[in-house]
Amino acid sequence: MHNTLGVAVIGTGRMGADHVRRIDEVTSGARVAAVVDIDADRAKRIADRIEGCTAYTDPAAAMAAPAVDAVLIASPGPAHEAALLAAFERDLPVLCEKPLTPDAASTLRVLEAEQRLGHRRVQVGFMRRYDAEYLRLKSLLAGGELGRPLMVHNRHRNASTPPGFTNAMLINDSVVHEMDTTRWLLDQEITAVTVLRPTPSGNAPEGLDDPQFVIFETDGGALVDTEINVNCRFGYQVQAEVVCERGTARIGEAHSLLTNTEGRWGGSIAPDFVERFEEAYDREVQSWVNATRRGEVVGPSAWDGYAAAAVCEAGVRAQTEGRRVPVEMIERPALYR
Ligand SMILES: NC(=O)C1=CN([C@@H]2O[C@H](COP(=O)(O)OP(=O)(O)OC[C@H]3O[C@@H](n4cnc5c(N)ncnc54)[C@H](O)[C@@H]3O)[C@@H](O)[C@H]2O)C=CC1
Ligand SMILES: O=C1[C@@H](O)[C@H](O)[C@@H](O)[C@H](O)[C@H]1O
């Protein structure tokens, strides 16, 4: 491993390009040694802006380059499994954007491959675990002052969806964040999912039932609801209120500047996740780089990726079958205990 960690960023779209900028300008102890995209022009345009960075179209070729010590995967979910397995072939540390893979069977294959290596290599990009508000909420709940958590009310709103966004993606790409925050905040597993749908909003693109109302049951007896509303038009909002025996705690209301002016009171709403979670992504990537340079793996593991995928699978079935679906999960392997 080089003194400055040489990172190959795979996928240079919205998230990948932002992570390239982050590693190049914000993160310490790392540099972008390679970028990979099936769109060769896009990869070259990005590589040309960074000294010592080479563009590739094949992830495995980039991973074979001597300058590459670690891999950040930001290609679309269906491409993650192949990239993860290629990284394992070279025993390279990986930060993989969520979802780890888009279904439980492929996530299980990744989990098995990591176990064959005999040590953890993967951190999953559940960046809300690095958000200052979520961290304060986690520490309040862990302190026990509010008593046992009984319910969580989440709101997850996007201004609009990209073309081709499907009902399954609403669960696998969007609500997957609430699956992870629920498991992490409550330290409980999700045992069943129910999905209810109002009459779709007039903003919903053809074929997408938006918004939806997703309910989780947990093994600790808590109920968690999520309003997922991804074409709300007015901006990007992520809010959570935890109702406990001795009080409630709420985040995501005032993540902005509040102003009083000309008979009006209010603040602004972030346009998208890149802005709302900028500091969380910065902390996530810095934490990954620091741990990798120490030879450690920290943060959300492949097991967390698998657990979320198992809940996603139940969620998509609950959505299509219109009933409560229990979550089916394997026992947690020793590597992840
Ligand atoms: N943590 C978060 O808040 C967010 C995470 N994501 C995740 O980041 C990942 C990427 O999402 P976006 O940047 O929105 O997608 P995007 O569609 O903007 O970019 C994907 C890029 O990957 C390239 N690509 C496709 N297949 C490839 C392959 N096999 N090898 C290399 N490059 C390939 C595409 O040409 C494109 O440039 C997804 O896993 C997504 O779920 C996306 C948005 C927010
Ligand atoms: O991960 C993300 C996107 O993939 C997803 O499409 C959005 O709904 C989420 O808010 C965002 O955080």
From TrEMBL:
Xref: Pfam families: GFO_IDH_MocA, GFO_IDH_MocA_C
Catalytic activity: myo-inositol + NAD(+) = scyllo-inosose + NADH + H(+)
Subunit architecture: Homotetramer.
Family: Belongs to the Gfo/Idh/MocA family.
Keyword flag Oxidoreductase: yes
Gfo/Idh/MocA-like oxidoreductase C-terminal domain residues: 138-327
Source organism of this protein record: Streptantibioticus rubrisoli
Residues covered by the Gfo/Idh/MocA-like oxidoreductase N-terminal domain: 6-126
InterPro entries given in the database record: Gfo-Idh-MocA_inositol_DH (IPR050424), Gfo/Idh/MocA-like_OxRdtase_C (IPR004104), Gfo/Idh/MocA-like_OxRdtase_N (IPR000683), MI/DCI_dehydrogenase (IPR023794), NAD(P)-bd_dom_sf (IPR036291)
Enzyme Commission number(s) from the entry: 1.1.1.18
Name by which UniProt lists this protein: Inositol 2-dehydrogenase
Function of the molecule: Involved in the oxidation of myo-inositol (MI) to 2-keto-myo-inositol (2KMI or 2-inosose).
Keywords: NAD, Oxidoreductase
Enzyme class: oxidoreductase
Signal peptide feature range: none
